[in-house]
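Why does residue order matter? Because the sequence determines the fold. Keep that principle in mind as you read this record.
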Amino acid sequence: MSQPSVDLRYRWCCETFQDGGNGVRVRLSSCGYGSRLVLARYLVACDGAASPIRRALGLASVRDAADARARWQGALVRLPGLRQRTPHAPAVQYYLINPRRMILGSLDGGDLWRVTFPLAGGEDLTAGEVRAIIAGALDCGTGSVEVLDTREWSGDAAVAESFRSGHVLLAGDAAHRMWPSGGHGMNTGLGDVANVGWKIEAVLRGWAPPALLDTYTTERRPTASAWCGGHGAITVPTSPCGPTRPWMTPNRPRSGTRSAGGSSAPASPSGRRSASSSASPTPTRR
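Structure:
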């Protein structure tokens, strides 16, 4: 795929890079085409939350809180008739708070759902236990819940201390790792490239000095930090039924859920509701 200023290549891997005085030397490899050395003025690292490039640069990440990492159980589940049994308007997601915090996301508009819920310390669930927990939360028998797949996952939020080092710039998850809720990571990443793209072009075309690229961190890092926890209330529970921890967005309602259309409704057939908090934890370094 090619655009006037873009040559998009799939299945290539960045093996090494070296930042020199006038640009970067990047060693790429491909199973089909072997190894290739690329010389460029600038390198934008969009290599994900683990970002080998960020680590090689020695750029630390700042966490929202020392204990920000949380463990969750995820499950692909078939729930026949759930929409019909729910006395509320159809929604893309339902949030439950009693007897256990849980998020149900529709995958096909019918019976297929993605279910996630936080785990307590030391909790290690079997597929049968996951099935029983979901059935209990929905106030139905285990026969109404078919677990197709289930596994544990974990997440937290962190922001790189700088989005630039010499001729290398970070964007997307490489610059900021966010809790996977609300599409904030994707949207913030798009904001990153919109900001840094025109600045790189301005420098390459000669109508702006290289120092313009320093404003990329100045302008984008505060936005990423705000979504990663500087403000109130997408929450991560400290325990499945216990206190919550503020996460990304400010000024969220303290109860109820929202459908894709924006209407507020209780989260489950029995009218269970969710809640949130708005305090901010103290940043720590990783």
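The domain at 2-65+158-230 is CATH 3.50.50.60 (FAD/NAD(P)-binding domain).
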